[in-house]
Amino acid sequence: MATKTAPDSSRRSERSRRAIYDAALALISEAGYAKTTIEGIAARAGVGKQTIYRWWSSKAEVLLEAFVDMGERNMAAAAEAAGTDPASVRALPDTGDLAADLKHVLRATVDELNDPAFEAPYRALAAEGIVNRELSARVVEQLLEPGLQLYVDRLRAAQESGAVRAEVDPRIALELFVSPLAQRWLQGTGELSHAYADALVDYALGGLSPR
């Protein structure tokens, strides 16, 4: 008699998680955060809502993990397309031209913020984080801080090469171009464009360059 292979529960769980992530992101984009429910996510993913509650306590937690997962998948796809290691995609470029490197990254950020697939869930997280301080702390830790640290590392490398003054605090310096971009996106006070990203870098570096 042929021996039957027992179902792989880990693979089944991974498929369920992936379906839940995709369902949450799709519903947020289609219906908005307020109208998205655990029941709706479960129905869209083809799982029972008890499955979701076994892993997460709220739709905000589902969305946060789905968003983190989307970012990781995008970086993996970018690395595969470039034929390089995923770790290199996470690092800011260091060509020796600080302005060019920062503009390259900020332009990519503008494209991401203007992408509907990214914008809807990110706005939902930002809005929920205003009233949910615990979620806000997790968003900072899991989504924002890793990217901000890459800017810190690149600016420190620029300090070592003499492109940025030694007394400059990289954590404050990065806010000169990252914060205005985030504020314009959140408040809708103007167009998000490559030209705007370039201007932020030029204005910021004008105050950071050696005197």
How is this fold's topology laid out?
Blueprint: H1 9-31, H2 38-45, H3 49-55, H4 59-82, H5 86-90, H6 98-113, H7 116-131, H8 133-161, H9 170-173, H10 175-187, H11 194-208
Helix pairs in contact: 1-2, 1-4, 1-7, 2-3, 4-7, 4-8, 6-11, 7-8, 10-11
What report would you give on this structure?
The chain is mostly helical. It has a domain at 91-208: Tetracycline Repressor, domain 2 (Orthogonal Bundle). It contains eleven helices and no strands. Helix 1 (9-31) crosses helix 7 (116-131), helix 2 (38-45) crosses helix 3 and helix 6 (98-113) packs antiparallel against helix 11. The protein is elongated.
Overall residue-averaged pLDDT value: 86
Shape descriptor reads: elongated
Distance between the termini: 82 Å
Name the CATH architecture of the domain at 91-208. Orthogonal Bundle
Beta fraction: under 5%
Give a short account of the largest sheet: none
Category from helices, strands and their pairing: mainly alpha
Pick out its properties.
DNA-binding transcription factor activity; elongated; DNA-binding; 211 residues; disordered N terminus; Tetracycline Repressor, domain 2; mainly alpha
Give a brief description.
InterPro entries: Homeodomain-like_sf, HTH-type_TetR-like_transc_reg, HTH_TetR, Tet_transcr_reg_TetR-rel_C_sf, TetR_C. The protein has 211 residues and is mainly α.
